[in-house]
Write a structure and sequence with these properties.
The chain is an alpha/beta fold. It has helices spanning 4-33, 69-80, 99-108, 134-137, 149-161, 172-183, and strands spanning 40-45, 48-54, 89-95, 112-117, 142-144. 36% of the residues are buried.
Length: 198
């Protein structure tokens, strides 16, 4: 039986995660409006947004693989020069971070990642860190997947169904994303933190 206090904390955490993921989705919608790949990101410290970011460099056939939403948000965080412990920051991203972003997030010492839609082609958060060098294998980070997954999926389906958007056209991610419509029943599952201190 789950103790009442633990349950209250769990429910509170879920609501918080959905609230801040909602704001990351707003960033993703802004990107989509600019014909960019719809990835949005917010960094949260003590229930306050300290930096936001969205994907840049994919509109008009561009293929800039540096300005991912998470990288843009991290750069803005560093530009703040704020005295904030990165371990107390939660990063919300509407797409599962790729290897570059996951590496930058770990190197930055961010304490928690919450993401919405799985990147079936390039997502890196499920990698086996225990086999990596100690900077990564000893990194402790909490990862919470699938928060508001359907809302994020919807934006990626919109992106891939527009012929003018050529970024990752014909990729396995496009095929996977558009195939999700046929299954339609992909529940917004909140599974809690699945990865704790190693
Ligand atoms: Zn990335």
């Amino acid at each position: 039986m789950v103790p009442a206090l633990a349950m209250i904390r769990f429910v509170g955490c879920k609501m918080n995660h959905e609230y801040f993921m909602g704001l990351a989705l707003d960033e993703a919608r802004n990107a989509l409006a600019l014909e960019e790949f719809p990835v949005g990101c917010v960094l949260v410290h003590q229930n306050r947004i300290i930096a936001t970011g969205s994907r840049r460099g994919t509109a008009d056939g561009g293929k800039n693989e540096i300005d991912h939403g998470e990288m843009v948000a991290l750069r803005r965080f560093y530009d703040l020069n704020a005295e904030i412990d990165p371990g107390e920051i939660t990063l919300y991203s509407t797409l599962e971070p790729c290897l570059m972003c996951f590496g930058a997030i770990m190197l930055s010492g961010i304490g928690e990642i919450v993401w919405a839609y799985e990147d079936a082609m390039g997502g890196a958060t499920g990698c086996d860190r225990s086999a990596m060098a100690q900077l990564y294998s000893r990194n402790s980070i909490c990862i919470t997947p699938y928060v508001l997954r359907e809302k994020s999926l919807y934006l990626f389906q919109l992106f891939f169904s527009r012929p003018e958007n050529t970024y990752w056209k014909g990729s396995s991610l496009e095929k996977y994303t558009l195939a999700q419509a046929e299954t339609s029943e992909s529940p917004e599952t909140f599974v809690g933190c699945r990865d704790t201190k190693r």
